[in-house]
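Hi X.,

You mentioned you wanted examples for the new student's onboarding notes, showing what a folding record looks like when two proteins sit in one file. Here is a clean example. The first protein comes first, with its sequence line followed by its structure tokens.
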Amino acid sequence: MSFPRLSGILLHPTCLPSRGGIGDLGPAAYAFLDFLCAAKQGLWQVLPLGAPANGNSPYSSTSAFAGNPMLISLERLAERGWLDSRLIDGLDGEQGPVDYEAVSRTKSPLLNRAAQNFVESAPEHARAGFLNFCTQNNWWLEDFVLFAALRERYNNARWDLWPAALARKVPEAIEQARAELAANLAIQRVLQFFFYEQWNAIRAHCARLSIRIIGDIAIFVDYDSADVWAHRERFRLNDDLQPQVVSGVPPDVFSVTGQRWGNPLYDWDHMRAHGFEWWVQRLRWATQNCDYIRLDHFRGFSQFWEIPASDPTAVGGRWVDGPGDELFNRLCAELGGLPFFAEDLGFITPDVVALRHRHHIPGMAVLQFAFGDPGAHIYLPHRMTPDHVIYTGTHDNDTTLGWWNTAAPHERQAAEALTGRAEDGINWALIRLAQSSVASFAVAPLQDVLGLGSEGRVNTPSTTVGNYRWRYHPGALMPGLAEKLARLAEVTDRLPQPVHAQSHEDFIA
């Protein structure tokens, strides 16, 4: 698929300086989009939008389809009349890192109160929008709301630790649970309605500003998710409901034991026999909610590392063929095109490159990786082609200034040989390199635009503490930054292009 020539910013919504201690889809999001418009940026890239299952990572979610309720704006709910504005007047928390436990304690009761108010008093037009949402999304929504309610009943215990009849989805037990939890199920449905109402309003605002949204899809799903609980036949589980094999990557120069991610692996034979229906649903849903999609760990579609679940490390794994062309042929036939690009970083074999090329899926390049040994030169601007998306860094990298402060002398020398000594910092030097390349999309994390060091890092892979907590300061988006980005977009021919009218089902309440 041919991508337009655009530039943009990578920023997950949790990083916004919203009230209540976590970024959300309220006023701060609209202020950020107005900044992007003034900066003549045509792209906003986000991370997966689901609620984290374990820890803070959006790549480990309780659902491949449901939105994270913590991203719902309380201010927007008050504007709709679902929440008394006096209840949020005392909320501050616009500054500082996200404290997820504190946010949940503060925000969850207010969200539930708003949902209850909707259930009890929504007028006819609002209820019609809600029922439309529920009808259109019944195929994932009903499994998710029951999963969420049961998870809440059992104090967030993993689903295989629930009573056996519920873990195994015995019909009589499920029917009884639905009856007992009917009130909670109604709340969970409304929360998803609130989330997607606000997200679709964001999308409509982006379209008015000629901003396209890049979403993100993790190739694997979490074991403790509605997807695995509701449809275990799609995953390689044993009779005890435990994974037979799990995901990861083999040992390399970074880890002698590799990485054992632990996600259950798909039963690709089952997926194939059912026409890859779940993947078609998943990617159709993604393309309905975002304009472009980054496919995380693209290599796994060609070959994936299969680790016996009993192994504590990734050493004993093996490479197994993935669905390859069959899946992407099916997706193209069903979706009418593939608005995807591939996360194909690291050690990539020729078969992965060939798969990407056969389906015209652009790849990724990260400038921070480009100045090491000569083999890393594939990430340099002069090696780019239009079928690439180029970044200064990603959510998994340190900020560019953080990287620079710890870079080896030979990396610094190589970078300065190309950029010269940038008076405004290496972060701006790499932003200019990215945008002046022939890559279709050029994306920089907001931290690089703000000139932040390692204090602005979002995630450190293979660690579980302190990640996805960073937020930018409320006064950080200065007009001078927008002007500087706008001038760069103009001279590199990356000005935003109008977004064609799309059918955004707003479900406005």
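Then the second protein repeats the pattern, sequence line and then tokens:
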Amino acid sequence: MLTKSDFVAYIDSPRHLWAIKHNKLTEVEHNAFLNHLFEQGYDVEEYGEKYIREILVPEYEVSSNNILFQPTANDGEFEARADVLIKNPKTNKWDMYEIKSSTEVKRQHRYDVTFQSLVFGKNYELGEIFILHLNPDYTRTGEIDIAKLFTRTNLTKVVSDLIHEVQILRYEALEVISEDDYSLVQSCIRPKLCPCLGICHQNLPDYSIYDINNLTANEKKIRELEKLGFISIDDVPLNFALSEKQRFQVQIAQNNQTYINSNSIEKSFEKLQYPIYFVDYESFNPAIPMFDSYKPYDQIPFQWSLHIKEDLTSELKHYEFIETQQIDPIVNFLSAMQAVVGTNGSIIVWNKAFEGTQNKRMGEIHSEFKDYCENMNSRLFDLMEIFRDGLYADRKFKGSYSIKKVLPVLVPSLSYKGMNIAEGATAMASWNDMVFGNTDDEQKAQLRADLLKYCELDTLAMVRIFEKLAELL
């Protein structure tokens, strides 16, 4: 029996489906972030069912006998479960609604509902097919307005266009299930996200073709290299067509060299003005807006860390903030920042697209801080760009410009290893647990300490990387 979930796995990667059906999936640890994602999905589903009852049922003018929540259907080979079926009194057909926690209809959703329509079409006369998803333009004011929180997207025509393709794909998926030898089934091309690494990518080299920047976006090129038997980045031929940036990465790796463009780094640093503020934000992005003026998945900045250098040789100063009350953090967040960050001097961040976007949004949500947020954005300097633009490149980065890849190479004395919170996604979920979860005082204190320690390391890491670069000039 092929379920809808099985089919979605097949669309993702045929070998992932094989691993599921042959119990070869790698066990995934349900950490704080994964639990957060599940909870987000449950929240949206709960609000979605409320939308069905409060908005659609009166609109359709149907009784409880003509609305089915979580119905299942199978035809002997395929099985699916729908979120909601509603008997349309005008057409005497069943309209299907699928509730999704995204703010848009994704490719996976189109194939998902087409598979469902094929299964349910055997037992129900289906009418129109809808995706009910969060409205990206909804802004909360007071209580959640359930009528505006969601958007209905009609996929009836899309499903009709995909029917033939999905009919073929689902029988191909059945063939995958019956295959004894997984090596005959196509593997995925994204090892970092693979749920069955030992099945998809046995003997994966430490630095592989899948690490080449943006190469997995071009499956044709990946498959061409795989067919030639070139999996290690060291084996990529000189005449293989790559972008200029990709070829540069391969060259650095194959020559095992460190490339430093001192002149360009120096010119970049000449733009800096003291005092220099090294800043990092942590934020939380709930699917359902928690406070007024927020939209679905708006980031809620709740924490910052700040290191200040008055000049290149001055003593380093550290300040920090974290919101622990069940309130919109922005006012306290920015008030605390204003107390220590003046209106002059450069603000160094790692990936200014994030902090810059948050500053702009905070100024929009709380207009009394708009001028200050604009001032901060005018002074941002992105330290990450030194590595993103290849001004400093090292094989050990493996083509990444993440601070967690750069730091151990330039400053091996600092490390995120062994920390209770060691990356942003877990920080986000941990803050939610600390402030809104069922945690006792001892747990709250531990989470607070872990969050402060993590965020402080982010800015200290920037300081030490900056100092290391300055030594080279």
